[in-house]
């Protein structure tokens, strides 16, 4: 992911809030496992299902 413009980064849609979010450097090694755009959405998904 070196020298890639921001508009060309991969995107996913958060299943909780429905907003699109882009690839981040801190998610480089775990991008396939990332489901939520934020810790807030991740915690809200657990409240809704449990």
In short:
The chain is α+β, with helices and mostly antiparallel strands and 50 residues long. Helices cover 22% and strands 12% of the residues. The chain has a domain at 11-40.
Could you walk me through the main structural features you see in this protein, from its secondary elements to its overall organization?
This protein is α+β, with helices and mostly antiparallel strands. It has a domain at 11-40. It is built from one helix and two strands. The protein has one helix spanning 39-49; strands at 11-13, 20-22. The chain has a two-stranded antiparallel ribbon. Strand 1 and strand 2 (20-22) form a beta hairpin. It holds the Pfam family DUF2256. It comes from Runella aurantiaca.
Provide the fold topology:
Elements lengths: L10 E3 L6 E3 L16 H11 L1
Antiparallel strand pairs: 1-2
Features:
two-stranded antiparallel ribbon; 1 helix; alpha+beta; single chain; 50 residues; elongated; 12% strand
Mean pLDDT: 91
Strand order of the largest sheet: 1-2
- Shape annotation: elongated
The N- to C-terminal Cα distance equals 37 Å
The helix/strand order is EEH
Helical run tally = 1
Protein name: DUF2256 domain-containing protein
InterPro entries: UCP037205 (IPR017136)
